[in-house]
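Hi R.,

Here's the chain you asked about this morning:
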Amino acid sequence: MEALDVSALVPLHAEVFQGYNSTIMGAGYLRNLYQTLACHTACISIVALDRGKIVGWIGGVWDWLSFQRALAWRNITGAPVIFLSLLKNRPRLLAKVFSSFLTVVLELVQRFEVRKVDSSKPAISLQTALLVIGVDPKYQKRGVSQSMMENFDRLLLSRGFTGISVSTSANNEAGNRAFQKAGYTLYRTDDGINYYSKGLA
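And the predicted structure, written out as C-alpha cells:
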C-alpha cells in the first residue's frame, strides 16, 4: 500500500463497510486512517490489484501505540469535520472517540516525561494485529481475501514476525469463515467480538 492508493481506498472502504463506525466518521477520517496505514513505520499494508485497479486491501499494525499516536495527530487538523460528521450520523460515538483520543494524549505525555530509548533493543514487535481487510464487492467470492492473507503472511514472515491476531464481530459469518479457513484459531469471544490468532512459520 502506498500514499497514492489512498484516494481509491476511501470510497472503496465506504462502499464495503457501509454503516461501520469508521465509515460514519467520514471521508476525512478514512483518508487519515489510510495515509497512516500506507506511510507509517508501525504499519504493514498491502493492496490487491486487477489491471492497476485496487480490488482488495489489508492493513496491519505491529506497534499499536505508535499507530494510534500518528493517527491522532493526523486527525487533529480534521477534528471539526470529523466531529460534525459524528454529530450528524452517530452522536453516541463521540464519547468513545474522545476517550480514545484522550488516552493517546495521556500516553504521549507519560512518554515525554520518562523518555530514554535503549537503541540496543530491537525496534520491532514479533506480533502483528490485522486491522482491516476489504474486497471490492464485484470481486468478492473469488478467493481475493484468501490470496491477500497468504501474501500478507509471507510478507510478515520475511520481516521476522512470528504471529498475527485479528478480531471481528461474532455476527460476521463470512469474516469468521475466512479467518478460520486461513488458519486462525478462535481463542476468545467477548461482547459479541471473536478474537483470533495464528502463528506464522
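Residues 93-113 form the longest helix (21 residues).

Let me know if you need anything else.
M.
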